[in-house]
Amino acid sequence: MLVTGVGKFTELGRLRASADSKDTEKRKNKTHLQVLLKEVATFMGAVGFMVAAIVAYVVWIRDFFTGDSSNGSREPGSTLEEVIRISIIAVAIFVVSLPEVLPLALNISRLSSMKKMKADNILVRRPAVCETMALCNDAVCDMTGITLDNVDDVQAGITEMQRAGIKVRLVTHDDPQTAKAIAMECGILASDGSDASEVIVEGEVFRLSEPCQRDELAEKILVMPRSTPDDKLLLVRALRKRGKVVAVTGSVSNDARALQEADIGLAMGEQATEVVVESSDIIILDGNFATVAKGFRWGRSMHEKVLRVMQQQLTANIVAVTINCLAAVYYGHIPLNAVEFVWVNVIIFGLGPLVLATEYPAERLMDEPPIDQGQPLTKYIRWKRLLIQVLYQIITLLVINFQGGSLLKNDTRDHATKVKNTMIFNTFVICQISIEFEVRKTG
After folding, report:
1. CA gap 278, 291 in Å, rounded
2. How many CB atoms within 10 Å of residue 245?
3. Residue 224: CB partners within 8 Å, gap ≥ 6?
């Protein structure tokens, strides 16, 4: 026997080293959902900063011309006090515009989903991939995940994924007739095989095609018989080049490179080799394709939970900023200060993700198309419901603001203001708690 290489110089060593580098790269890169949440937070922060600056300027002009100030005096000695007061107003408006709880919601949703996914035989090795599953629109599978031996659930799993807008493609080394028969039985092809001539392409034909023709051919392929692991890798690359978010299943060492190249690498069953496990993002413990469909439902569920928390958070942010702006311009003070809103963020909005974390994914999530990674997160917000909540809360708080002042007209100014602000804050908190129940009920 002649030894030509050991350790990292063997084929297995190179695959393992490649898996480690891909793992490091995936951990460094921000996920699609993290990027979108950062964009929302940045936008809200920019809007809050501009509104705070405008309100501070308006309050300063109003005080200058009317002579109103924190102590009712126009003496020069009160100038510093006025600057501090107006600065506090501006800072408070800026703080209440920030959606601080969204990263917390993402982390809680991710961790709770991973724990429950393990109970469903889905072991997540790289947490960030849970979010990517909501974007997936292509699944390249081998014969390990789709076989006639599998838990009469394979066709149901494929049907569910197709209903969710995820195209399932079978790549196998078997001959065309065998591959066609299995694809027809599992539901990848029509039961009468009428579409087989257009979507069955042998691996060699695909491999020898011109690069531009190969990319176009990749989208049409549903079954690729007589293929090699390199053909599978070429297919994955071509699909990703076309803007697809691709999941790949595999179990043998030769599948490792395709798993690394994919957006979502799925190692099928305990029979998966060590290098495949290290190259994968998720391990399907029971090796059943129906379990793969469950994994995609979990991914969509996590994405939806974050959206529901974001809708709740944006409602509170818009209400708080609006009320503070109106009160600052009209009265020269704010009913909801920064400390109070931080308390609301931590206590009230911290409960939202915890409450939603107990939910299992709904069946209806697989009746919708994948999340479009080219669209902003705000596209998926239920704006009609949000605006109704915003208008209701603003009107309620304004009524309390004006009626509270008339009810306490015989009281001292400072005490009446404190009582009125307390009423506004308590009502605001109750409104946010009510949204907690609505988010849980209507999700």
Report:
1. 20
2. 21
3. 169, 170, 171, 172, 179, 200, 201, 202, 203, 206, 231, 232, 235
Q: Which residues neighbour 399 within 8 Å (Cβ) at sequence distance 6 or greater?
A: none
Q: Which residues are catalytic?
A: 142
CATH assignment at residue 45: 1.20.1110.10
**Which tens digit of pLDDT belongs to each residue from 32-44?**
778 888 888 888 8
pTM of the prediction?
0.82
CB burial readout 311-345, b (16+ within 10 A) else e: bbbbbbbbbbbbbbbbbbeeebbbbbbbebbeebb
119-172 pLDDT, tens per residue? 999 999 988 888 889 999 999 998 655 654 456 878 888 999 999 999 999 999
Angle at 304 between CA 340 and CA 123, to 5 degrees: 110
Based on the number of CB atoms within 10 Å of its own CB, is 227 exposed (0-12), middle (13-18) or buried (19 or more)? Answer: buried
CA distance 206 to 235: 8
Tokens coding 103: 């990263």
SS3 71: coil
The values of phi and psi at residue 5, to 5°, are -175, 150
Q: Identify which of 179, 182, 184 has the alpha carbon closest to the alpha carbon of residue 202.
A: 179
Indicate whether 222 and 145 sit together in one domain.
yes
Quick check: is 19 in a domain?
no
Q: What share of the chain is helix, strand, coil (3-state, %, to 5)?
A: 65, 5, 30
**210 belongs to a structural domain:** yes
Domain ends where: 298, 321, 355?
298
Burial of 281 (0-12, 13-18, 19+ CB in 10 A): buried
Strand ranges in 82-132 using DSSP code E only, listed in sequence order: 122-124
pLDDT tens readout for residues 161-198: 999 999 999 999 889 998 888 888 888 888 776 666 66
Provide the mean pLDDT of the chain: 82
Domain of residue 319, residue span: 28-104+301-442
**Tally of CA atoms within 13 A in the half-sphere of 373 that contains its CB:** 18
Q: In the sheet where 122-124 sits, what is the strand order?
A: 122-124, 282-284, 264-268, 246-250, 138-141, 167-171, 223-224
In the chain, the number of structural domains is 2
- Rounded Cα distance between 194 and 149, Å, is 25
* pLDDT tens digit sequence for 304-325: 888 888 888 888 889 888 988 8
Mark which of 240, 266, 298 sits at the end of a domain.
298
Assess whether 336 and 274 both reside in one domain: no
